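Notes from hallway chat w/ T.B., transcribed later so I don't forget. T.B. wanted the structure written out for a chain they're using in a teaching module, and asked if we could keep both sequence and structure tokens in one place. Agreed to drop them here.
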Amino acid sequence: MCNIIKRLYILVNTFITFTGCTPAETHVKMVATTGGSKSTMPTIEHSIWINAPLETVYAVAKEVERFPEVMPDLESVKVLERSEDGSRTITEWTGLVREFNNMRVKWTEEDIWNDAEHTCRFRLIKGDLQRMEGEWRFVEEEGGTRFHSRLEYDYNVPLLGALVKNLIHKKLEENVQMVLEGIRSRAEGA
């Protein structure tokens, strides 16, 4: 228990130094979940236009094991399982939180790829978050491709509350942006 308190103390002090915010100044946008649930959880939604054909962008997105090439905060992605038709993968991710001395964040997720709809639905199997799920959608638009990303997650640290939740939200938002930019970079260079 003492080790956890020390890590949390370091986390709080590093967060305040990094952001300049105190717990009272932080805020995470909460969005109601779908399906009639009364619970809420943070949701991150972004999209980006990519100057490449839909099939090229979608193929690049499916090569998740190559994401560390274009995402500096991602140490590795290992494909643990891949169905014969490529529609389902189980992947193990290791991210780095550089602000905390390259602290590693690990998770395993299931990805369901729908080639006809050009979508990927993903969900956390195990890892450092309590819950994570989302969807990527790829749509032809103006001679290129619109890549929509939605991520919902839950990470509950009662002792530090909003302080840690806001830092995690910021890091996940940066991660979503890196995914979008990384896929655009690889697809436009293909």
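Follow-up for T.B.: Strands lie at 30-32, 40-50, 74-82, 88-97, 103-114, 119-127, 131-141, 144-154. Might be a good example for the class.
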